[in-house]
Give the backbone structure.
Amino acid sequence: MSIGWFVVGTDTGIGKTHATCALLHALARRHARVCGMKPIAAGGVQTPDGLSNEDSIAHRAASTVRVRPELDNPILLPEPLSPHLAAARAGTAISFDTVLDAVTELRTRTDALVVEGAGGFLVPLSETQTGADLAAALGLPLVLVVGMRLGCLNHALLTAEAIRARGLALAGWIANRVDPDFLCPEENLAYLRTHLGAPLWADLPFSARPDPRADADRFMLPDVL
Ligand SMILES: Nc1ncnc2c1ncn2[C@@H]1O[C@H](COP(=O)(O)OP(=O)(O)OP(=O)(O)O)[C@@H](O)[C@H]1O
Ligand SMILES: C[C@H](N)[C@H](N)CCCCCC(=O)O
Ligand SMILES: [Mg+2]
C-alpha cells in the first residue's frame, strides 16, 4: 500500500498541476514507484491515443510508473467546465465508486500516489456532492497549493478551515508564485506560515516556463516520507 495525498488548490488555474508534478519528482528521489492521478478531469485534448487531459499528460511525464488511463484518469469529461456541468452536458454522472476503485488499485501498484483534485476544494461534482466529499471518501491527507496572488490569504485560510471542519488532515502546503507582480510576497508567505497551521512543503518560484523537475529541489518534505 502506497503513501498518498490529495492535492487541493486555493482555486482553479493556480498551478496545482505544476506543484503536483514537482512533488512527484521530489518523491521519486525517495520512492521507486511514484504516480500522479487526476480522478476527475474536465477538458480534453485530442492525442494519437484519443482524448486525454492535459493535467494527466503532465502527471505521466513526472511519474515513474505508467498505468492505463482508466486508473490514473478514470473520469474524463470533454468540456473544460465545472465537473457537475461537464458531466451533465456529457450525459453522465460522476461515480465515486469508479474513483475509489481506481485509487485502491493504484495504491497497490505504487509506493507514493499523488491525487490532484479539480478546481478548488468545494468544486461541485454533482448537484449534491463536491470535491470535499470526494476528499473525505478517499481519506487521504491533503496538500494545499496556494497560488500566491492578491486574495490568496483569504482563499487559503477558508480552504484550510473547510478541510479541518470535515475532520480531514492538512499535511502541508505549497506556495506557488504564479503572479510576478504580486506585492509583498515574502510578507504574505510569512503570514500563511504563521496562520495556516501546517508545514510549508515548498516555495515554488514564478517562471515563464515552470520546470517541475527543477522545482523538486525546493521541497522540504518531512523525513518520515
Ligand atoms: N510557478 C509558476 N510560475 C508561472 N506560471 C505558473 C507557475 N505554476 C503554474 N503556472 C501556470 O499557471 C497556469 C495555470 O495552471 P493550471 O491550469 O495547471 O492550474 P491548476 O490549479 O492545475 O488548474 P485545474 O483546476 O484546471 O487543475 C498554467 O499556464 C501554468 O503553466
Ligand atoms: C476546467 C478547469 N480547468 C477545471 N478542471 C475545473 C474548474 C472548475 C471550477 C468551478 C468553480 O469553482 O467555479
Ligand atoms: Mg491542474
Notes: The radius of gyration is 16 Å. Residues 9, 12-18, 55, 118-119, 176-178, 204, 206-207, 210 surround adenosine-5'-triphosphate (ligand 1) (CB under 6 Å).
